[in-house]
Amino acid sequence: MSFKFSLVGDMHQRKNAPANRLDDFYLTLKNKIREIVDVSYSNNVDAIIQTGDFFDNPMPSMAVTNEVIKLWLNGVDISDVIYQPYKEFTKMSAYQREYEELTNEIINIYDESNQQNNPESKEKRLYKDIELLIKDKKKQKNIITSDINNIKPKLEKKIKKVIPILLVGGNHELYGNSINTLNRTMLGFLVNLGILKLVSKKNPHLIKKNNLTCAITGTSYHNDIDSRGYESDYIIDKKLGDRHIHLIHGMLHNKDMGKIIRHTTIDQITDTLADFTYTGHEHNGFPLTQVDGKYFYNSGAIPRLNISEIERKPKIGILNMTKGDISLEEHYLKSARNGKDVLDISKKLKDKHKEEEFAEYRKAVRNVGKIEGYNVMEIINSISSNKNIKPKVRDKALEMVSNAIQKLENNQER
């Protein structure tokens, strides 16, 4: 008796194309999903396991979501069933944003009053506004819960024969890289409906066949992942079945990547009891690696977003597990054209000069202080670590940046 899975890397589902793509990015992405689903059904897999960054941002449009989810569900259309809960969900998200803005305003007033003895009337008015919002939020949450409970039987019937999709949260689809914002995101909405299943160490997915059990657990992205002392994100210290797969959205690699990129190497987590550790986040991936009878793998991202990926051929893995054996077959996507046909090489040449200039900037930054990583999120994390800034303050800063990026991306999709 065997357990079989499709292993699918980061998807970054979005409608607007990256600047360096030559093809119709969204059409290509949909063709890849069709092929992944076809291969999964033809192999009769028990589940599709996806590494996170299922979406490229926390709140893709409902039109895009409906299209891609219909493909993942092998043609089953659920748009009519989830329309009303989605309307209420967007209202709830709006309440949450307004609540946070008012809370921040109160904090600012409080800070000012401590310094200038400002009157408290404005603060009291804001408290009343928050109280009203909380009441509205509770009412809205009850409406959403009621809607979900009402449609679940119909939804479960529709997707009864669909291959389950198990995944973790990636940094792109969470506000401020925080799993605590899951319920405000499209990913969280689909998870709450039962369309996708988010796995964790506390919420494993168990598959049982003829007295054999395969457990799938996961760790979603968070701000401290791959930091020193967080190796436990990757480590399973108690097996939950005859076979155990651990899924994670983190920068695991089979070799040292240097000091600039925060990462974890396989040799740091060989104490894990998981039979198979599957990771995403790093788009180029690494080959199946065996250490002490345990396997580690990254199949690589499905879309190619950067020129550096021009030689890479997107693929998925078909994992077969029995009580006595583990094997992996790699399926290279036929729907993925040659990198030179879809990525703009001329932009690479233009960017080479910019990269040389940026290298000088990076050198200057290093001279100012040790900052590991150079995207905005990494810089905030590094500054927070170096200056001993409280995690709560850091997470708020990250969430504000994430919200700003989201607004920018939403404007681009229109």
TrEMBL record:
InterPro entries given in the database record: DNA_Repair-Maintenance_Comp (IPR050535), Metallo-depent_PP-like (IPR029052)
PANTHER family: COMPONENT OF ATP-DEPENDENT DSDNA EXONUCLEASE (PTHR30337), NUCLEASE SBCCD SUBUNIT D (PTHR30337:SF0)
This protein's name: Calcineurin-like phosphoesterase domain-containing protein
Organism: Senegalia massiliensis
